[in-house]
Amino acid sequence: MKKLRKVDASMAVLLALAAGGAHAAEPQVDEVIVTAQRVGQRLQDVPVAVTAVTSATLDRMQITTANDLGRIAPNVNFTAGTGGTTQLRPYIRGGGVSDGGNVTSESAVGVYVDDVYRARLSGAVMDFLALDRVEVLRGPQGVLYGRNSSAGAVKLITRAPEPDLTGFVEGGYGNWNQRQLKGYVTDAISASGD
Fold first, then answer.
1. By the 8 A CB rule, do 52 and 119 touch?
2. 95-96 and 152-158 as β-strands: parallel, antiparallel, unpaired?
3. Which residue among 2, 44, 134, 176 is buried most deeply as judged by most CB within 10 Å?
4. What's the whole-number average pLDDT of the chain?
5. 3-state secondary structure of 86
6. How far lies 19's CA from each of 7, 8, 89, in Å?
7. DSSP-derived secondary structure for 132-166
8. Where is mean pLDDT largest: 10-19, 72-81, 96-105, 138-147?
């Protein structure tokens, strides 16, 4: 009998620990707001295949250019064009531009920076320096984003200006005497009637 009571007591303690630990171990997920349908909505309420990545995740995963987006979004591939390394060839679910180096070629993937369409992807390779988030919309997006978004759209949303003077500077030195310096400064513009 004592042995049975000892087992019952230890089981009760294990069950109590498991029940108490289950509440403490539940992950807290922050609410993600996206503008995939041109209005701010919770990500789980959007009926579109969206991959939304915040600037903190971009920094943590060391995603610094559009060519790196294929690492975070499924079925997405960005490559440099044939005409040079500054040209961008995006593909989403196999649809994209055949030759990004051709000035007259139009992509099936719309690239937007702060909701402004990048009509030509020549020279579109940019550093992700002051981004707030990236939204990759897979599938036809022609209703909201126009005819050049039949394979999908990539939205790059930059950070809003801050009320205080802030900035960021990053430098690097590499092989073959390569040097890199990038940064930004932001400040609120105040209108005074004086």
1. no
2. unpaired
3. 134
4. 75
5. coil
6. 18, 16, 52
7. EEEEEEES--HHHH-GGGSSEEEEEEEPPPPSS-E
8. 138-147
Closest C-alpha to 106, from 122, 119, 91, 88: 119
Nearest CA among 155, 148, 161 for reference residue 35: 155
Q: Give the residue extent of every domain in the chain.
A: 33-160
Distance CA 153, CA 73 (A): 12
Q: How far apart are CA 149 and CA 119, in angstroms?
A: 11
108 contacts 114 by C-beta, under 8 angstroms:
no
In 26-63, which positions are buried (b, 16+ CB within 10 angstroms) versus exposed (e)?
eeeeeebebbbbeeebeeeebebbbbbbebeebeeeeb
Q: What is the spatial distance between Cα 59 and Cα 57, in angstroms, rounded to a whole number?
A: 5
Beta bridge partners of 91: 77, 96
**Is residue 156 within 8 Å of residue 136, measured between CB atoms?**
no
80 and 66 Cβ atoms separated by less than 8 Å: no
Write down the pLDDT at residue 1: 45
Rounded mean pLDDT, 113-129? 73
Q: What letter does residue 65 receive in the DSSP assignment? A: B
Q: Roughly how many angstroms between the first and final C-alpha of the chain, as a whole number?
A: 90
**Helices (runs of H) and strands (runs of E) counted in the chain:** 3, 12
